[in-house]
Amino acid sequence: MTLAELEIARSQSLAEIAAAGDAAAVEALRVKYIGRNGSIPALIKGMKDVPPAERPAFGKAIQAWKAEVEKALAEKGLGDKAEKAVAADLTMPGRWFTLGAKHPLSRVIEETARIFGHLGFTVADGPELENRFNNFTALNTPAHHPSQDRTDTFWFNDDCLLRTQTSPVQIRTMLANKPPIRVICPGRTFRRDTTDATHSANFHQIEGLYVDTKPVSLADLKSVLAYFAREMMGDGVKVRFRPHFFPFTEPSVEVDFSCHVCKGKGCRVCKDSGWIEVAGAGMVDPRVFGFVGYDPKAVSGYAFGFGVERIAMIKYGIPDIRWLYENDIRFLSQLA
Questions:
Q1: Between 308-316 and 218-233, two packed helices, what is the crossing angle to 10 degrees?
Q2: 136 burial class (0-12, 13-18, 19+ CB within 10 angstroms)?
Q3: Could you read off the pLDDT of 157-193 as tens digits, one per residue?
Q4: Backbone torsions φ then ψ of 215, nearest 5 degrees
Q5: In 76-153, where does DSSP find H-type helix?
């Protein structure tokens, strides 16, 4: 192609673009002239066949032609890359964008902090990577306890592990402070659990601790948990204690809330028992006080702990714990 022929092609292309009547026609011309296999890219690739003396003028003319075509396409509303081939249809209904919402687990944690905040509890935090003393020894857990086995816990070495509960935060708090202490400890915990509808190797706990030089009794613990149950689940919810065993509390109890769905009459949520198991609790074992340097004869206190996922599943009627971790906006938006 000579420079004269190039000028004719340039004029023709600009005339065709100017005469294009719709977006589809303009898009076709874009492909024809500046698309990957268009006329202009083909000329650029063929520059090696142009006599060396004519290459500067020929190349300059091609680049000028390309710039004019891109400008003409831009004026037609396609822009330099012609990505928007279809113009906006102003008759189409608009898209409504809604604000996001907090995750159910975050909502339960924040609501729990608010409830216990009314009772004078503050929030304490600690690392997810713990040592054996804080996670087991100071909590009066014997070395032969199954939870210390490598098949039950994520160990990095003989003294470093992913915490199995948020109780180590209680130990850290007592080591750093003198009574009175009134804290809740929310956080992520890890255990070698089989993942199914009710278990996960990664889950969240909220544990609470109250220690004072004044007498603290099991009745105080029950009143606090009854208040929490009413605030979290609604009026009319009752609390039941059942004897149990935990290494770090004595006496120890399992805590049940009356079913908020059937009001204690029995339904599929509570398996027709009228009660839902929620937490473990008890009076702090004197040995625990000894590990943190407290005089067991001078102080007393209680501790409790429950799973955040457990509360969320009960409160929002979620049948499978895995739904909380799949990040499915269709599910999460129902709880907004």
A1: 40
A2: buried
A3: 999 999 999 999 999 999 999 999 999 999 999 988 7
A4: -60, 130
A5: 104-117, 132-135
The continuous run of DSSP H or E covering 204 comes out as strand 202-212
Please provide the average confidence, as pLDDT, over all residues in the chain. 87
- pLDDT per residue over 273-282, tens digit each? 888 888 999 9
Strand partners, 182: 210
Q: By mean pLDDT, which of 164-173, 254-263, 285-294 is the weakest?
A: 254-263
CA distance 17 to 26: 6
Interhelix angle 55-75/23-34, nearest 10 degrees: 170
For residue 252, the model assigns a pLDDT of 95
Torsions phi, psi for 238 (to 5 deg): -110, 165
SS3 of 261, please? coil
Contact partners, residue 154, CB within 8 Å, separation at least 6: 161, 162, 190, 191, 192
User: With bands split at pLDDT 50, 70 and 90, how would you rate the model's confidence at 88?
Assistant: low
Contact at 8 Å (CB) between 261 and 269? yes
- When pLDDT is averaged across residues 220-237 and rounded to a whole number, the result is 90
Residues in the chain: 336
CATH architecture of the domain covering 104-335: 2-Layer Sandwich (3.30)
Q: Considering only CA atoms, which of 336, 100, 113 is closest in space to residue 232? A: 113
Phi and psi, residue 184, nearest 5°: -115, 150
Long-range pairs, 223-230, Cβ under 8 A, ≥24 = 224/119, 224/304, 225/255, 225/279, 225/281, 225/304, 227/115, 227/119, 228/112, 228/115, 228/116, 229/257, 229/278
Q: How far apart are CA 302 and CA 100, in angstroms?
A: 38
> Per-domain residue ranges for the chain?
3-75, 104-335
